[in-house]
Structure prediction request, 315 residues.
Amino acid sequence: MPRLADLVELVRAPAALSVPGDVIAGAAAAGGLDRRTPALAGASVLLYWAGMAANDWADRDLDAVERPERPIPSGRVSPTAALGVAAGLTAAGLALAGAAGGRRAAAVAVPLAAAVWAYDLKAKNSPAGPPMMALCRGLDVLLGAGDGRTVRAVPAALTVAAHTWTVTALSRREVTGTDVALPLGTLTATTLIAAGAAVGRTRRTGPTPTAGTAAGSTVRTAVSAVTRSEVAGLARAALPAGLAVWYALRYGTAQARVVAEPTAGRVRAAVGAGITGLPPLQGALTARAGSGLLGLAVAAAAPLARRLARRVSPT
Prediction:
């Protein structure tokens, strides 16, 4: 019977702090934030953990050579137990998604689970690896749309998918190191991703002055209303931009270090930064959709994720 600490390491439990923000960003963008969102985020976490366990089960022979300290090759978790954990978490994630979001959520959760297993069992070591993992995270964002307008969540899903593509491309060089071209390419993509999250259109969340109300007020009241509206608009625009800059600095700096010295250790550090540094990007997307305080709460997971990553590797 594996210890709890070994299972935590198997599923990279702390890395799941980067997951709920997918669902929240999708729900905010689609206008579907409601009481079901936390449960859908929980389903997303379960599917993420399932993918991590399935990943180590599929890689058990390779890890015996390259990473013998991992739970399966070290003998702390048997292959059978790891496969059982992966299957059980998948079933639990699908059940929770269906119970919380009904058929619409299940229609996203089922292909999401299939994509996770396809990545782990087949696509990971092929050219299809990065786009398949990007598909997983994109679907994860759409899972949060619920009964909202799913099409509105597509830009957020594409943004998170693009980020995931860069992390996955780097992760394929965690053991061997890389050449300069790869981190240069991912760093360029990260810059564009951050810029898109920073300057995208921010949805208004409150009423705005109209010509009729201004005409029926004194000049001073009208000017005051316009000023408050402008200040609120600037604040709504500044928050996503600030969170996007935070994301770009955290993940971009790690990639710049790989450009300077493309060793395996620095690649692993950049992958870790890409995983634990995702919440500020999710927060920017959430704030851009008009949920500023919730966006800040999502982004706040990043420091905790970094602290926990020192104990349990997220990669």
The longest helix spans residues 79-123.
